[in-house]
Design goal:
There is one protein chain. By secondary structure, the chain is an alpha+beta fold. It has one domain. It is built from five helices and seven strands, in the order E-E-H-H-E-E-E-E-H-H-E-H. The strands form two sheets. The protein has a five-stranded antiparallel sheet with strand order 3-4-5-6-7. Helix 2 runs parallel beside helix 5 and helix 3 packs antiparallel against helix 5. This is DUF3788 family protein. InterPro entries: DUF3788.
C-alpha cells in the first residue's frame, strides 16, 4: 500500500489507531470484493455465532480489523485492504499439516508456505480474491475450531 509516498507493508488498509473507519469507508476500500467480504462475515456469524468487534489490532503493521472470538479465543480477523481484504487464521502445527494435505488454492497455499513456523503454529494471512479462497477460509476455520475445541463436535 502506498501511504504518503512511502510503501507500507501493513496487513490492513486502515492503520491510524486514532481514527476508527466508518462502515462506508470500509466498504469503499474493499470495493469490488465486497460481496466476498459479506459472504465470509455472514458465514462466520451463521456457523459460529461468535463475539465480534472492529478493533485496532496488533499495532500499525496490522491496523483495524473485524475480529471474531469464540469462548474468549480468537477465531479469525478480517482486515480491509485496497480492493479487497485479508483473513488472518492462526493454526497449530497439526492443523498446518492437515491444511497442507488439503486441496487449497494458490493464495492459501502461499500463505501457509510464507508464514513463519512457531512452536504454537503459524499466523496465516490469506488475501481473499475469489470464491475458492472463501471455501479455503471456511475449511481452515474448521481446523481452527477443532484444534482449540471451540465448539462441541
Amino acid at each position: 500500500m502506498l501511504f504518503l509516498g512511502v510503501f507500507s507493508m501493513s496487513i490492513g488498509y486502515f492503520t491510524d489507531k486514532k481514527t476508527e473507519p466508518a462502515d462506508t469507508d470500509v466498504r469503499r476500500v474493499i470495493g469490488s470484493r465486497l460481496s466476498l467480504w459479506e459472504k465470509v462475515i455472514n458465514g462466520i456469524q451463521s456457523t459460529y455465532s461468535p463475539m465480534e468487534d472492529f478493533k485496532f489490532l496488533y499495532g500499525s503493521n496490522y491496523g483495524w480489523g473485524r475480529r471474531f472470538r469464540l469462548k474468549g479465543q480468537l477465531l479469525t480477523s478480517l482486515y480491509p485492504t485496497e480492493g479487497g481484504f485479508t483473513v488472518q487464521i492462526i493454526l497449530d502445527p497439526e492443523s498446518i499439516e492437515a491444511a497442507l494435505n488439503m486441496n487449497t488454492g494458490k493464495n492459501t497455499r502461499q500463505a501457509i508456505e510464507k508464514a513463519t513456523p512457531y512452536p504454537e503454529g503459524r499466523w496465516l494471512f490469506i488475501p481473499v480474491e475469489n470464491q475458492d479462497d472463501v471455501k479455503d477460509i471456511f475449511d481452515l476455520l474448521i481446523l481452527r475450531v477443532k484444534s482449540k475445541k471451540l465448539v462441541k463436535s
